Structure formats: structure tokens, C-alpha cells
Amino acid sequence: MEQKQIGVVTFFSSQHAIRAEETLKEKGYEVSLMAGPKEISPNCGVALQFQPQYRDEVESILKEKDVLFEAVHLYTPKVEKGILKKLLGK
């Protein structure tokens, strides 16, 4: 099973993650808050997920609106096989 790549913005503070979510939703982007993947950032427990094809636009908008963020990543979530088997009933 191939994992899909997602866009993830990491932050130093959850306050900035919430502001980024509001800013991008106002611009019409589909975004959602998620647990920050420890593999890409140990700083804040909250990250923002977006569709990866909008990476450059997302970064540009956040900079334009002075929303502080750590980095913008393209990330492939890791799924543990045991959990995946349980979810799929195998």
C-alpha cells in the first residue's frame, strides 16, 4: 500500500498554527490541524496539513500575512503495520 505525501507546516507555537489555519481557510484552502510529526519537528505539538500541490502558495500567503512558522514540508506519514492491520481488519 503506497502512502500519499501531504503538505505540513510546522510551528514553534500552537497559537501560530491556529492563526495559519484561519488565514488559509479565509483564502479558500482546505487545511486542518494535526499532531506535529516528531520526525520533522520536535518543537510544537501542533502542525497544519494541506494539499501538497499548494506548497509554494501556502508558504507565500503565510509570509505575506506575517504568520510565524518553522518550516513547510512535504511529508509521507508513516503507518505502523500493526495499526494498519487492525484498521483494515486483517
Could you tell me the number of beta strands? 4
**SSE-based structural type:** alpha+beta
The end-to-end distance, rounded to whole angstroms, is: 14 Å
Oligomer: single chain
Mean pLDDT: 87
Radius of gyration: 14 Å
State the helicity in percent bands: 25-40%
The total count of helices amounts to 3
Q: Major β-sheet, in short?
A: 4 strands, antiparallel
* Strand order in the sheet with the most strands: 2-3-1-4
Unreliable residue runs: none
Which term fits the overall shape?
A: globular
Along the chain, the helix and strand elements come as EHEEHEH
- What percentage of amino acids are in beta strands? 15-25%
Structural key phrases:
single chain, 90 residues, alpha+beta, 4 strands, 34% helix
